[in-house]
Amino acid sequence: MTFSLDRLLRQSAERTPDRPALRSAAGERTYRELDEAASAVAGFLVERGVRRQDRVGVYLHRGFDSMAAIYGILRAGAAYAPFDSAASESHLAAVARDADIRVVLSEPAKAPRLRKLLALGTPIETVVGGDDGGGLPVSAPSWSEVAAARPRSDIGVIEGDLSVLFYTSGTTGTPKGVAHSHRSMLSNVAWALDRFGVRETDRVSNVTSHHFDLSWFELFVTIAAGALLVQFPEDTVKFPASLAGALERERLTVWCSVPSLLVGLVQRGDLQARSLDTLRWVLFAGERFPVPHLRRLMELVPSPRFCNMYGTTETHIAAHYEIPPLPAGPPDVLPIGRACAHVNLEVVDPEGVPVPRGQEGELVVRGPSVMEGYWQLPERSERALRPVAFTPFGPQRCYHTGDLVAEQPDGDLEILGRADRRVKVRGHLLDLDEVERALLAHETVQEAAAFVLGEEGADADVVAVVAPKPDAAIEPPALRAHAASRLPAFAVPSTFAVEPMLPKTGSGKLDRRAVQEGHRARVGVAAAATAAPAAAREEGDDADPIRAFLRREAAADGIELDDDTDLLAGGVVDSLCALRMVAFLEGHHGIHIPNDRLAQENFQTIRAIRAMVERLR
Question: Is the pTM of this model over 0.70?
Answer without folding.
Answer: yes
